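sorry for the late reply, my laptop died twice this morning and i had to redo everyting from scratch. anyway the thing you sent over, i finally got around to it. pasting the sequence first so we're on the same page, its 268 residues, then the predicted structure underneath. double check i copied it right bc i was rushing
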Amino acid sequence: MKPIWLGTSWKMNKSLTEAITWCETLTRRIPDILHPDIQPFVIPPFTVIHPVSQYLQQHQIPCLTGAQNMHEAEDGAWTGEVSAAMLAEAGATLVELGHSERRGAFNESDAAINQKVHTALRHGLRPLVCIGDSAEEKHWKVSRETVVRQLKIALHGLSEQQALQTLVAYEPVWAIGEHGTPATPEQAGEIHHALRQALCEIFGEHTGLRIPLLYGGSVNLQNSVELLQQKDVNGLFIGRAAWDANGYCNIVQRVKQEFILQAQYHYE
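ok and here's the structure:
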């Protein structure tokens, strides 16, 4: 079985005290509920990447730490920006790129995201590339074309080995946020199937089938397993349902019990 990626981004939330409290709860609960086939990760604000990463390492919790963005340049006069080298030094091993909020509010283009992907890989950071369709694109029935275009541009120029170090998260813009409407498992599965076909077209089947595809967009305890039951969904990128550590742990526990262990039972 491929690893199941279960992670969350805190966005612009949590002070240092709140971040460590989240880590303390995770440390208390995760050893009893984690399965070897689950890869947890957390993406906090820049200000707490180092203490979160340090805390998890010191307590031997196999949860990766990421960053929410980075600049494509190695260094220079980019006031207010953060480089890949800085993130790696702070303890990040993942970097989230291309979130719809970055695309919409900060005018990030597909080409700029492609540059960031290449820079991240040069510094040993694993890019988590976010792609998604708007409500308007969904209405006009061009969702598949939209996300495949975003995917192809973001991963342009990668070798097969580099592609295997990349994660892709499908996050429909109409599904994320406090008032988002979750995609049905079938809707998520349809888009993920189109993305899988595109990956196989670009990198060949041997590589394309191994690149993790995550779904994000109003993921919660109730729909987590149903989403993972879709063939090409390899993980979940969870929002506010995981901002409380117990909420996150409850999802991990349900995935272990009702998806992984049940699948193993039926296989045996």
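The first strand starts at residue 4 and ends at 9.
thats about all i looked at so far, will dig more tmrw
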